[in-house]
Amino acid sequence: MISASIRPAVFGLLLSSYLSWSQPAILVKEEFSNNNNSWWTGKGENYAMKIEQGKYILTTLQKDNGRYVTISPYIDSKKDFSIEATFVQKSGSDNNGFGLLWGESGGKYHDFVITINGYYKILSPETGEGLNQWIEYKNVKPMGQPNVLKVEQKKGRLFYSINADLVAETGSLPIYGNRIGFITYTDMVLEVDNFIFRHDIKINLPPDLASGLTKENLGPEVNSVYDDLGPHITSDGKMILFGREHAPENIGGKEDGEDIWVTTSEDGVKWSRSKNMGSPINDSEANNLAAISTDNNLLLFCRLDGFQIRKRTKEGWTPPEYLNVRFKNESKNMEANLSPDGKALLFTAKLTQNLFYNESSESKEKDIYVTTQNENGEWSSPINLGSKINSRGDEISPFLAADGRTLYFATDGRPGYGNYDIFMSKRTGTSWTQWSDPVNLGPEINTTGFDAYYTISAAADYAYMVSDRNSIGASDLVRIKLPQAIKPDPVVLLKGRTLNAKTKEPISADIFFEDLSLRKEVGEAISDPNTGSYRIALTNGKNYGIRAQAKGYLSVNENLELVSITEYRELTRDLLLVPIEVGGTILLNNVFFVQGKALLKSESYPELDRLVQIMMENPAIRIELEGHTDNVGNKAALLKLSEERVQAVKTYLEGKGIKKDRITGKGYGGSRPLAPNDSNENRQRNRRVEFKITKA
Description:
Structural class: mainly beta
Distance between the termini: 102 Å
Largest sheet: 9 strands, antiparallel
Number of helices: 4
CATH architecture of the largest domain: 5 Propeller
CATH topology of the largest domain: Tachylectin-2, Chain A
Mean pLDDT: 90
Low-confidence stretches: 1-17
Helix content: under 10%
Shape: elongated
């Protein structure tokens, strides 16, 4: 029997038009051979849910007391969609309903249900013709036989089918939320199979995205029976910090939120048993880590009133210190991430500058912002990343990869597979508002549920995230091997130690790296105060100067030419610091001359300007410049060239205000090589300028 909302005279025309429409693409196809779409399983006082032999089996025990089960795919209520499934009632009451449910949020939803004794109903909080009434329909199949139910939205109308027969039509109904699934009204054993959700949306996927990706659980040494959340992997891929909720071992105990835990690995495969980081990082409140710096010596925390940092010391960690970033966040939560160079901080917030700001909304519509640090250490006002990134929905969990331009973030405001999907975008210029169109990371990373909080090391070989599929506990840390299509650009991870050049003992130092072509500092780090170890990520295509700085020492600066780097590499360079004392010799690695001439290249100016600054800050220092060449060519000509180059450096320093009597100099030609002149690389090492402290 058809609904009263369809007049018989037009039903034939309607049915013909309905059958002629093409179906949208399949977004979810669930045959229950596994639990790929994270359907809930478990037991309660009145119910039991399990997946067994290719069926979802929902058992409810009390008459007129049912249960619903949902997943949360992305839904655009303005677009066509359809939901269908095959139901077999195996036992129980035959006079109350089971069927499809959609648009659920906060207990409000619509459903289309049937009874085995021959009725259907379209239940909704809305009112209207054909809604909320039982209607007789004799072609419902009996107990133990399959019934296929389908709800379709097409061109603003909803159509309802039982076993491929169109039985009703209504106007479109509001979508309160994106949960869809199935429901029972009473006591029964119900088998569900072939759940299919189609949706007329276009998901922007990367070209040539590989398939066959598998999420690997990090195992019981790392994960627990509790919620393990929010992983942050260090740049070298050897340590993960993450949150654990409601564990008895937490400082606040089981009831008071989240502590930060840590696990380590030498190979990225076998991870150590996770440990609570303890005090002072954790306390009795919820402890929410936002980011680890590339050098692993600074931790960033989000607070509702701003950002706090802790720095590593010889004794442990400094007390929390607020950054001077000020804004009023109207959301109840916030996430953040540090750029690899430490000069930018990306975060999510609801500010009046949001693209689609809604004052009446309690928490929705968070955008991603950035604040940048200037040369004086001051942080800028928040900058909205713009409409390429931010949508009408929420953006959360931003993560900027080691290349400094590839952004991963989650949102519910773009077509995807679940209620929150992870997307990737790349900066296309120097501005923080210039981005490529975000691409969805695909159905093997994203699910029909909530996907966010994604992190990768500098190598970008694996992504680490959270999953509740086949988990040890409520949610676990997993990793997934990254295909090329969704990797960031390759970087060089430079690591080493900051050492006293004379004793080779570790020194705590600030580390700075410069783009020598731009003559501009582009990042900074700090070294571990106990071991002197440091790490920095450098993008390819540039010529860098690297230096360490500590009070009472002069740095031997390093030069790295990365123009030809096309894949991830790790390089080791110890940074030496020379005590400011008579006899100390400093190699000026970043002083460059035109080939065969005594003309300074502009890339030399940052190095020489720092030497000027050192001499200004230490007015008692006197230095002797030494010029050296390789041994290729006429000895007399090489000696003359080395002397002229010393004079060029002396002239530059004097031009910057250093008095002539503080600088002497001498050229040695090729008579004092550092290495045999048997290769281009060694000859390059021998072509150098040094200075020696003659008075301190």
